[in-house]
User: Fold this.
Amino acid sequence: MSAGPVAQPTASADAPDLGLLLVPPPLRTGWRQVPARVAAMCVVELQKLRHDRTEVYTRAIQPALWLLIFGETFTRLKAIPTDGIPYLDYLAPGIIAQSAMFVAIFYGIMIIWERDSGVLTKLLVTPTPRAALVTGKAFAAGVKAVIQAVVVVLLAAVLGVAMTWNPLRLLGVVAVVVLGSAFFSCLSMTIAGIVLTRDRLMGIGQAITMPLFFGSNALYPVDLMPGWLQAISLANPLSYQVDALRGLLIGTPSHLLLDFGVLTLATALGITSASALLGRLAR
Amino acid sequence: MTIGPNDAVVCRGLTYTFRRGRRKGGDTKAVDGVDLTVRAGEVFGLLGPNGAGKTTTIRAITTLLPTASGMVRVFGHDAAGRRSEVRRLLGYVPQQLSADAGLTGRENVALFARVFDVPRAERSARVAQALAAVDLTEAADRSAGTYSGGMVRRLELAQALVSAPRLLVLDEPTIGLDPIARASVWERVDAVRRATGMTVLVTTHYMDEADRHCDRIALMDRGRIRALGTPEELKARVREQDAALPDPTLDDVFRHFSGRGLARGESAEGDFNDVRRTRRTANRVG
Assistant:
């Protein structure tokens, strides 16, 4: 049986110094808590990617094929009216948004995996508000998506797409990609909080990805769609993301203020709903 | 009811029912009126078979359950109402292997230093001390994916220790480990407790571990505490009440108070998820 409680650490020649483990860290409160948690989650995401870059490479394959096969073919077909812009140029921002969405839309599976492996429970037992945890995860998805976007931008540049290299505009692109991914990862985490199992989430993820992608302006202008689909596209955050990316990257007329407004609002709603449902996963 | 200044955890009338539809077997009362007090500085063991209610009790104490009926206080803070204050005092190691295999040992601990707001200036020193406390200094910069089961458990202990918790909660910390790894985990828990004086609340299936390492134990079965005391007190009570057992083990004690044994095969309790979680953890460490 172990000895009774000891208030002070016992000094011993071979015992390591544990002085700091006796003092709880100072309390950080208020608004500074959220950015600190977001930074912690983003750092972890970057550390993981640094150790294993396979995901960056394998995830680059699909957007590359979209640009190479679909893009090159439809450039020749000239079937889609793009106001005089080469179709590949028109398509590239859509593919950036799509590949970022694909990273984010399965983030809920990661949350379920973290629930099954105890990681989520352990994080929920730390003094981290649920909204801060969800925001952290959402922005970590954004970090991953930005890396993905860099790959697509470079690939598009190699294929001869005329894009801006204005650093301010590129910064805007980063912001749009992060916001879009944050929204789609929150959507996925919200669904995870409702369906609770990986299999159901996989099914729903696949079911919503297709209409989100084809019901947006990623591949063709919204004007080409039937009226009912145009109405759906109006409520699809991916359309606003693509509109902003197109405006920033290739200079097409866009509605940046509206786009940023819709994406910010959608992300805020996503964070609210995902954090409200997060506790269900830990029960 | 009074809470003494030396009480780390106080549960009174803790009851929790899982609501399920009839198709899933109906409502299950996982914890049914649990009263227990964990004194500051002691190692308190919660023992019982799968499905006894140990993990649900731990979840109530670690603020993970929505409001249960009854009362749970951790160092005087209400675990249902003052969750943030309680969480600040807790170090928690869940039953599953929860270290991230995609990160190094040091990065795993640093994440918890960050979420507990350890200032940047002392972060790396504190992380190094937590790793040293569990004897992982040399392996700290290796990927946690290359660690043995016992090393992962010790890494999780370091993650819990980095925030200097007053209450360390360990849910089946040695499940699935071989005897040498089990001993190494307990050796570190004992050493850290001697060095810091923190309170340890541990659940386990293993009676021999509880006998050797716990100051006091509560035997739990079917959602209720069947007996509570030091291992010696409980054995003495059985000796007094049952002349056929002059030298009872804790397993005999459990059988005496719950009417059945804890040995394999005699306590096939716990739902599908309990058993799956236990097996999955055992598979991953083994």
Chain B touches chain A through 69 residues (CB under 8 Å).
